[in-house]
Structure formats: C-alpha cells, structure tokens
Amino acid sequence: MHHPCDKCDAKATCHQVEIFDGVKTISHLCDRHAAEAGLGAACLSAWAPPGLLEALQSASTAAHPPAKSPGMETSCPGCGQTLRDFHMQHLLGCSECYRIFEGALSVVVERAQKGASHHVGKVPAAPAHLAQQERADRMAVLLRMRGRLDQAVRVEDYRLAASLRDQISRFEQGLRVSLLHKEPAP
Amino acid sequence: MMKNIPIPGDLAGEGSFCGTGPDGDVVVSSRVRLARNLAGHLFTHQASHAERRGILDACRSPVLELLGPGCAGVRLFGDPVWIRMDSAAAEDKQLLLERHLISRGMARRDREFPRAVAAAADGSRSVMVNEEDHLRLQAVFKGLALEEAFAAADALDDSLSQKLELAFSRRFGFLTACPTNVGTGLRAGVMLHLPALAATCEIEKVKAVARDTGLALRGLYGEGTEPMGDLYQISNQTTLGRCEREILADFSQGIVPQVVRYEREARAALAKHRSLWLKDHVRRAWGALTHAHLMPTKEALSLLSQLRLGVQTGMLPDVSDARLARLMFLAQPAHLQKFLGKRLAAAERRQERAGLIRDALAKA
Questions:
Q1: For residue B45, which of B123, B106, B118 has the smallest C-alpha distance?
Q2: Which residue, A120, A159, B22, B316, shows the most beta carbons closer than 10 Å to its own?
Q3: B26: closest CA among B317, B205, B260, B320?
C-alpha cells in the first residue's frame, strides 16, 4: 500500500517512526518534505553502519524470493515494527522480529558480526521444562496479544483494551500454572 | 546537598573501583556484560510505559535476590541497592556513570522512563533494567581478572534464567534489541592505563593490534568517548558465532598480555633512554598538582596519570600508586561531590578538586 505524503498529495517515500515515552508516531513524507525535515536516504546513510541500507534493501528484494521474504513495509505481528522501522532506528521491536525478518536480518547480522550467522555458546537454562517450540509458540501468542492491546489503547478502544488485558492476564496465569506443573520432582 | 542514595562500592577506602589488582600497574579493571531480554515482552524502546514499568517490577525482586548475601555462588556482604533512574538526581546518575554502573544513555534519558540499576553492596556485580535491552548483567573486578568477571556474570545469568524466561533462539542465540549484541550478548572489556604508550605515540599501534584481533580501543567511558588520564578500554566488537570462552581468549591469550608488555617496555625505555624528559614531565605534574588552586577534571586526570608514570618508573618511591589510582576516581565531578558531601558548581569543583589533591599529595 502506498502512503500519500502527510504534507502534500505526492507519494511518500520516507517513513519515519518516532517513539517518545512509549508512544509511537509514524510520519510519511515525500522526497521534498523529507529533505526539508532533514530526513531521507542521504540523511540516513550518514549515520547508518556502512552497507546496512544496501544490505537491508537487497535482502528484502533480490536476495530472497518475494513470497518468503517480507518487504520493507511488512510488519511484525508481535510488535508492529517493519523492516523500514529497523532501518531507521537500528533496533528490533521484539524477539518475534528475528523470526519474521529472518531472511533480511541474516544479511544484516552477518555484516555486523563479521560473517557469523549462527549462535555458538551458552544456551539458557530454561526456568520451566516446556519444549522449546511450545515455549516459543506461547510467547509469540503473548506478544501478539500485547501488540493488539497497544493498538487498542492507541485508537482509544477501551472496551477492547479491557478485554485484551483480561485475556493477557488469564494467558499469563495459564502459562505460570503450566510451568509449575512441568517442574520436575525434587 | 546531593540526595543521599546508597552508592555501592567503597568510596572512602580503596574498594573495587579505586585500588589495584593483578597487573594493576597497567590494567585498572576487567568487565563482563551480558545483554538479555525477557521472553514475551516487547524490547524496551518499543514497549509502552506500562509494560516497561511491568518489566521493572517483574525484575526487581529476582535481581535483588541474586545480588544479596550468599547468592549466585559467592559470598557477597551487605544488602544490594536498587536505584530508580526516574527519581535519581543528575549528580547521582553521573556518579553511577563514573563507576561504569550505568550507561551514558541511561544517565541521560528522561525522568519519565522507568529504568533502574541494581548493584551488590561492593559494586562488583550489577544489573541494569530497561536499558536498550531489558537486562544488562555486569561484573567488574580490579586488575586483570576477566575470567573471574565472566564467572561472576555467568553465575548471575544462570540464576536469573532459573527465575525469568529469557528471549532465545537456536539460530541467533540470546535475542537483543540491536543485532550487534545478538548471540552470546557478551561484551568483555579491560580498562588500561597506558601513559608510556601515549607519551611515545604508540597508541596507534595498540589500536591496529586491537582492530586486527576484532577488538576496539575506546575512551574512558566507552564507545564515542575520548581517552582521559591515559585510560583506554579494549572491548570485543562481535558477539555471534564464537562461544564465550573463545571471545575471552582474544583478551587473555592475545591482546591484553601483549599490551601490558608493550606498556612496561615503554616505561622502562623512557626511564633508561629519556630519563631527563621523564623527570621533567613527572616533576612538572607534581608541581602543578601540589600548587594549583583551580583544577579541571581533564587536567587533573592527565597530571595524575603522569604522576603514576613517575611512581611506576621508580621516580617517586614514597608515593603510593593505589592512592593515586584512587585520586583519579575522586577527581571526577560526581565522585568529588559525593566525597565532599555537597553539591558544587563547575567553578567550585575546580577549586575543591585542587584542594583535595593538594591535601592528598601532602600526605603522600
């Protein structure tokens, strides 16, 4: 979907995500207005690590088949962040981002980590003895629910927010109970 | 007056941050930091205010338990402290920054941001909550003690992961907000005092050696800061693809012994071949420090560094190196104010700093 510029009818080419005190504001600007605001590719490339922009762009287009690779505007279901947001602020929004954007991130990670692509080393001692996949699935669901709650609060849908808050609370309670039940006998 | 929050570590004596340890003539301290995030939560910058507060509340009790007496496999004395950044005074944050207990970002950010640092009473182990990652576990030891620092941070991590679910993937390891920390999440660093290499303009060679090993040479307060008092930090740049032991080996079996040897050789060469220059250099520093009435931080650190060089080359046999190392900490703005127990404007600090150093050297 193409966004029009916030300040005129031209097509927006620069999408800025600003987070202040937990409140995310997204602005869409055309080339001219982005340049006026001191944004845009020229501005980004001044502070982005060398090659990051190219790595992200090539990773999200040519290097991976479009069906499997999310574009710059695809958002993570866990936090709502897009690859473009990451490109702007160099920070991922949640652990789900690593799964959703794995293809694109692989290139960025390898570049930042001098060619390394896989973890070698310590594995955390799990507090509970859930299977890793089961745990990951549950956490992904929890993240998505929290994302929806944030969205509901942002659009001031307080009825939905209250309902989601209850659901999250019950879900967390269930998670704790299931963790306790899977603790091995001393 | 400064707000009377408890500050970990022994400020008045020669505690973890002030004295010297193994190879302490060159290595000031060794530090290991592990970046961790809680599973099921948005990363700090993306989380709402309520979620950040929830993370802070969820971490407080398990973290304080870890840093209390008898926990994490070590015998720690005294109660740990929990300092909220949103209620701490600016000068207290500055003090924590000078002790490397918080990051520059944490000291700077706004008062509405729920963040905290928990620290063991001796300041050797600490945990930042809601920094760029939810948890930054840290262990700092005097002198060259990277293995010990890693063991302490690792024990904290083991205990914490029994209590809290950490974000982890089989491929990327410990998941962090910035991919430059992903994997082990491990940043190891040693702070080095290199006056002779600085005086002989050999620091560029150290930088080159560090770069070739995949490490970085930075200033006193880390990335993007300039060196003061000839103090430099060497830390690893990558965190993925090699296990924790391999990362530490770059320091303990590679660059650190090498730089320690270079620095000692440079000191010996100065004493042998440029003794007049060295004598003049050290005596000028002594003269300025024992007679000046206004002393800015940077100048104080630089002159104290030169005095330490004098002690280390046998030119000032009656002066204690540990005492000078301690003065280098007390000369920093927040340490000075905490030590004197009063808030001071910049001009007053210069005056008080000069007086404190004059008195200390008169007793040396």
A1: B106
A2: B316
A3: B260
In chain A, alpha helices (H)? 31-36, 41-47, 52-60, 83-89, 96-100, 102-112, 132-154, 158-181
DSSP string over A96-130 = HHHHHTHHHHHHHHHHHTTT--S--S--PPPSS--
In angstroms, the Cα distances linking A137 to A76, A140, A164, B142 are 15, 5, 18, 43
Q: Give the pair of three-digit tokens for residue B306.
A: 């030169």
pTM given for the model: 0.76
Q: What pLDDT, in 10s, does the model give residues B21-71?
A: 788 889 989 999 999 999 999 999 999 999 999 999 999 999 998 887 765
Give the residue among A117, A82, A113 at the shortest CA–CA distance from A97: A82
What's the Cα-to-Cα distance from B105 to each of B31, B102, B225, rounded to whole Å? 18, 8, 13
Q: How far, in Å, CA of B81 to CA of B122, rounded?
A: 10
Please state, in angstroms and rounded to a whole number, the distance separating the CA atoms of residues A23 and B112: 13
The alpha-helical segments, DSSP class H, found in chain B are 49-67, 90-98, 104-108, 146-163, 195-199, 203-212, 244-249, 256-273, 275-291, 297-312, 321-330, 333-340, 346-363
Residue B161, chain A, CB below 8 Å: the answer is yes
Residues of B within 8 A of A150 (CB-CB) are 48
* Nearest residue, CB atoms, B238 vs list A89, A116, A139: A116
Residue B89, class by beta-carbon neighbours within 10 Å (0-12 exposed, 13-18 middle, 19+ buried)? middle
> B105: burial class by Cβ within 10 Å (0-12, 13-18, 19+)?
exposed
Query: Could you give the ipTM of this predicted complex?
Result: 0.84
User: What tens digit of pLDDT does each residue of B190-209 get?
Assistant: 999 999 999 988 888 888 88
Shortest Cα–Cα distance, B181 to chain A (Å): 9
Q: B321-330 and B297-312 are packed helices; what angle lies between their axes, rounded to 10 degrees? A: 170
